Amino acid sequence: MTVFPFTAVVGQEELKTALVLNVVDPSIGGLLIMGEKGTAKSTAVRALADLLPEMETVRGCPFNCDPEGPLCPRCRDAAVRGGSLETERRKMRVVELPLGITEDRLVGTLDIGYALKTGEKRFEPGILADANRNFLYVDEVNLLEDHLVDLLLDSAAMGVNTVEREGVSFSHPARFILVGTMNPEEGDLRPQLLDRFGLCVRVSSVMDKAARVEILRRRASFDADPALFLARWEEEQRALARRIAAAKARREETVVADGILEKIVEITSALSLDGHRADIVIMKASRALAALRGKASVGDEEVKEAALLALSHRLKRKPFEDVEGEREKVQSLLKEL
Description:
single chain, about 325 residues, alpha/beta, Helicase, Ruva Protein, domain 3, five-stranded parallel sheet, two-stranded antiparallel ribbon
């Protein structure tokens, strides 16, 4: 078991909220975490795994197929033959993309020799198969090779991974929640990938001496007795997991009134953003936030908090302007509304 509130950094609460919102509503579009090295970005993402709920899947399916569809070829064939599919409950997971991963390991491989001999397809699943309906975590996402970024973009856009080799093709569902971490000092992201992240959070080191001392105490406590340290946080961890499950259950019933939609459009129009993805993300994130707080409908506060998470990485940046300048733009606009 891992402990979600493990360390303290500037932006920690926003980071935790953004991760949890993607669990409540996976269609929000994932999260980009920006910050210098040593700010517990990876720790926070990996700690999320213990809070993830269970999902219903087709029994034995390597692609975690949803019984309601879409289905992989294997599950489609089984449904045609038997009429119904056996199901099982599996806990959602955080699947990590290893550094230096190859294209075949990411998308999977086709056995061409077997296909030519037998006329049947034999597919060795890759990371995208494992990540279907789970979180896909990419550390140092800004350093990912361009051809791998293209593959991620295709799968993220279509929700399907297609592998073609020598005229033989195989497709399976690949709907994942993309979470990336990066140090902005090491380079920027391609605009196409940047826009694919629904939310973005900037974290930085704590400068307050008392807070830094508390971090040291917690680390020393964990190193001395990990089991005891985890036990101290267990009830808080379980309570948060219950809140997330309850929020998922009532998310669709949470009302987003026309006045709230108008407020969202007012914000995005004032910033002259391209496309409509930002509007959709703010709507979904504010609804998930209201559900997490047990509210029956979305209010102005939820919209403003969701906008801070959804907009800063989508603003048109002037030359030499950093991300902090982008965040200040959003905050200034929200104060006026």
